[in-house]
Amino acid sequence: MTTKSSQPSATPAANDSAKDTDWIDQREQRVLAPFAMRSRDSQGRIHPEQEHLYRGPFQRDRDRILHSWAYRRLSGKMQVFTGEMGDYHRTRLTHTQEVATIARTIGRALGLNEDLIEALALMHDIGHPPYGHAGEDVLNECAADHGGFSHNQFALTIVQELEIVYPQFPGLNLTMEVLAGQNFRADKANVELDRLLEVQLVDAADSTAYDAHDTDDALKLGLVSIDQMAQLSLIKTCLDHVAKKYTALDKSLQRTALVHQLIELQVTQLTAHCAGELRKHGFANAFEAMSSDFLIEQPPELADQKRELEKFLYQNVYRHPQLITIRETAQNRLRQMYAAFCENPELFPPKYQRRADLIGVPRMAVEYLAGMTDRFCEQTYREIKIG
Ligand code: MG
């Protein structure tokens, strides 16, 4: 039973005499582990703003991302499979939500900052162009002489320059911690970059989510079979667990039970492994943890099993002839559109003309194409009458 003394103190909304930052700080002291990032330690925003009465800085970042145009457009961007292949499989938006929920589950179990985790997770794929990695590859090729293109870097451009929603500044004016987290994604090869545990966790949750949902979607679409996948060590472990739990399942329920177990196993093992390691290290604060050699990652045996699964998905799903055809069609379309916008900059909607003057027509063409949903890209392709 909850005793009176353990009741949370009144929120500022209920008691406006409390100082807002005190309340947020007290709440974080109660629920966060010592190595979690705290709102009070944030380096703040590029454009200083007054703190909100009852929402902490990372919660505000999460809300700003959720309400952004680019975030909503994720519903129209493919993850691996296109809209014409059905409506069961993940879009870039539902992938993002799965990453956020997996990261929050693990983050809560480890005592990390869930608001920061959610902000980072909702933002992590916000810079994806239409047609997933196929789109990214071709935009990078088009922009080779103009700085290249990476969806991770473009996410930073979106939240710092392209989202115009506040009169006081361009972009969303996110905290330095969220920007640094995304900057790490954009510059992963840079070993000098330390990152908060919350940033590392979102990266691990991304791979947990896509290994599970790409397996689910590929099985549902019939690109691969359970019998084929049963040869993989991680899938076999999960199927053995399912067989012990349920005596007879039809193919559809066997698939969903397998995918549930695939998520459960990865989340449980990652959480248990990291909790044990964190106990051993005994970090006193977030900065000690981020500058150490400790990493939020799967235990070695599971990491090997995931590599085997990812290799299988790459060879049998991502390179499936059906996807290769869709990929080539989409890439040709983007190449032609890039050339058309470069040759005829008057094709840009008027509001983009000023940015084209600022960053140059080729770069503007890449940004304009990268912001499109798959559907809008196809519609524009038809409208500008290429082909
Ligand atoms: Mg992702």
Write up what this structure looks like.
This protein has 387 residues and is mainly alpha-helical. The chain has a single domain (28-41, 55-383), classed as Hypothetical protein af1432 (Orthogonal Bundle), CATH 1.10.3210.10. Helix content is 62%, strand content 0%. It has helices at residues 20-31, 57-66, 69-73, 92-110, 114-123, 132-142, 151-162, 176-186, 197-220, 226-229, 233-245, 251-281, 286-290, 300-318, 321-343, 350-359, 361-371, 374-383. Helix 6 (132-142) runs parallel beside helix 15 (321-343). The structure holds magnesium ion.
Amino- and carboxy-terminal Cα gap: 70 Å
CATH topology: Hypothetical protein af1432
Report the CATH superfamily. Answer: Hypothetical protein af1432
Q: What's the overall average pLDDT, rounded?
A: 92
- Oligomeric category: single chain
Radius of gyration based on Cα positions? 23 Å
Q: Give a quick account of the main beta sheet: strands, pairing sense, barrel closure.
A: none
Silhouette: flat
What number of structural domains do the residues give? 1
Indicate the CATH architecture. Answer: Orthogonal Bundle
In DSSP terms (H or I, runs of 4 or more residues), the helix count works out at 18
Indicate the low-confidence ranges by residue numbers: 1-9
Distinct ligands: magnesium ion
**Helical/strand content category:** mainly alpha
What is the level 1 CATH name? Answer: Mainly Alpha
